[in-house]
């Protein structure tokens, strides 16, 4: 086996050092900020920007300064071994899962389209609602069974306001308080809004599952405040409503499909076993 001479060894060492330098330079030579051995490139920064955000010469220094501050704390946390703690590892793993779920959902929802014909059909079916404003009272509880029990009590003749004062956990309309008049298109939940505007005065809704909890709505009053409304004035809202609904249906269908081909177990009792 041939042995390299001292000169050849030196040449090889120099070559390897130069090669490593070139690789490092190619990867980090265009960096825009640095903290120790951590480099921020333009490509990496662009990947972190929210959609629609553009950097300007005026705001870039403050963005880079925030990255530096965050990186300094990150490196200190690593130095203290916080990333090695088991509880932190679990949370980091869950954060990664949540991030991937959000990315997947966003990509799926980009496929959802609403046709002009669908939007116009919705407008024609609900046009009268856009001419009105409503006043409501409601009961909001966290427990679904309690909500259904309260609805049965209301149907049997119990006073809505008295039940609201006793049971409702509503932080907005406390104790059965009445709302101001609400126009169509002002609520964040289109399904809830449709349910409200389909009611007649003194009519009570079914139990409605919402982000605030399980709701029972009583329509206090409905008044017409417009003579007419043009499709173009509400088309954006209608598109959002239909896209929201189609998105929910698409995701529910997708989850059902994934469940059908995957073994899934839910064992709440196992949580309490010692």
TrEMBL record:
Keywords attached to this entry: Isomerase, Rotamase, Signal
Record carries keyword Isomerase: yes
Domain PpiC: from-to ranges: 131-221
Keyword Endoplasmic reticulum listed: no
The enzyme's E.C. designation: 5.2.1.8
Cross-referenced InterPro entries: PPIase_dom_sf (IPR046357), PPIase_PpiC (IPR000297), PrsA_foldase (IPR050245)
Record protein name field: peptidylprolyl isomerase
Entry GO MF terms: peptidyl-prolyl cis-trans isomerase activity
Gene3D superfamilies in the cross-refs: 3.10.50.40
Broad enzyme group: isomerase
SUPFAM superfamilies tied to this protein: FKBP-like (SSF54534)
Catalytic activity: [protein]-peptidylproline (omega=180) = [protein]-peptidylproline (omega=0)
Pfam families: Rotamase_2 (PF13145)
